[in-house]
Amino acid sequence: MRIAVISDIHANWPALEAVLADLRAVDDLVCLGDVVGYGGEPVRCLDYVRDRRWLTLLGNHDLACADRDVLEWFNEDAATAIRWTVEQIGEERVEWLSARPPADKRDGALLVHASPRSPVFEYVMDAESAAANLSELAGGLCFHGHSHLPGVFRLDGGRVRHDYHVGTVELHGPVLVNPGSVGQPRDRDPDSSYGVWDTDAGTFEFRRVEYDRLAAQKAILEAGLPARFAHRLEFGY
Ligand code: ZN
């Protein structure tokens, strides 16, 4: 089975559209959360994802739409975007978003937004957090997002190794796989990032897709959201 793994759409419709157009012969798709936040088209992105009935996990931005305590941890600009998002999407969509599961499984692999030990909040960006989370996997496989950095954490002779998006990788557990972000890439490559997991071959193919950044930037600026959210799309940081 070929499963597209996408994450961190962040209300960037042109990016989501481009990724969907790039999909070839996939049997399923899973979304690792953060459908909203930062971007200017939350209704369009949320309705599309919901209508397709893909497995969609709970991200911290999704949860912040419904939970004031979570929102308090956001920086001012990100919180501004969440408050605007809540106004746009309305109560019923907020309810749907905040009812997404924080974790699930597919074909034996764990799926979370952030990390195995803290499914909604922890950033896995260094060897220490990666080692702690790899040890939770019992030799298995985990897909996660949140950091917006595509890549793979694994153990090599007892030491943590981090490989960035490198075409197609073979998956030998324990391994943490991050497909990167559809709507707000942060690895200095502005193209959308996602990947395809081939469960039979035991491989993951990282893919990058150009999208209409101008349209996404325009939506952010026209919504009156902080201009830096538009600016960063230009450079992918
Ligand atoms: Zn995110």
Low-confidence stretches: none
Shape: globular
Largest sheet features: 6 strands, mixed
Class computed from helices, strands and strand pairing: alpha/beta
Please give the CATH class.
Alpha Beta
CATH third-level topology: Purple Acid Phosphatase, chain A, domain 2
Q: Provide the gyration radius in Å.
A: 17 Å
Mean pLDDT: 97
Bound molecules: zinc ion
What's the domain count?
Answer: 1
Instruction: Report the sheet-strand fraction.
Output: 15-25%
Helix-strand sequence: EHEHEHHHEEHEEEEEEEHH
Number of helices: 8
**Which CATH architecture would you pick?**
4-Layer Sandwich
Give the tags.
237 residues, alpha/beta, Purple Acid Phosphatase, chain A, domain 2, 6-stranded mixed sheet, 8 helices, 23% strand, globular, binds zinc ion
What's the quick description here?
The protein has 237 residues and is an alpha/beta fold. It has one domain (2-234): 4-Layer Sandwich (Purple Acid Phosphatase, chain A, domain 2), CATH 3.60.21. The chain has helices at 13-22, 42-52, 60-64, 68-71, 76-98, 127-134, 213-222, 227-235; strands at residues 2-6, 28-31, 55-56, 103-106, 109-112, 141-143, 151-156, 159-164, 168-170, 175-178, 192-198, 203-209.
Describe this entry's structure for a reader:
By secondary structure, the protein is of the alpha/beta class. The chain has a single domain, classed as 4-Layer Sandwich (Purple Acid Phosphatase, chain A, domain 2), CATH 3.60.21. It is built from 8 helices and 12 strands. It has helices at residues 13-22, 42-52, 60-64, 68-71, 76-98, 127-134, 213-222, 227-235; strands at 2-6, 28-31, 55-56, 103-106, 109-112, 141-143, 151-156, 159-164, 168-170, 175-178, 192-198, 203-209. A hairpin with a 4-residue loop joins strand 11 and strand 12. Helix 2 (42-52) runs parallel beside helix 5 (76-98) and helix 7 runs antiparallel to helix 8 (227-235). The longest helix is centred in the middle third of the chain and has 23 residues, at 76-98. It is globular. The protein starts with a strand and ends with a helix. The structure holds zinc ion (ZN). The site of zinc ion has 7 residues, from loops.
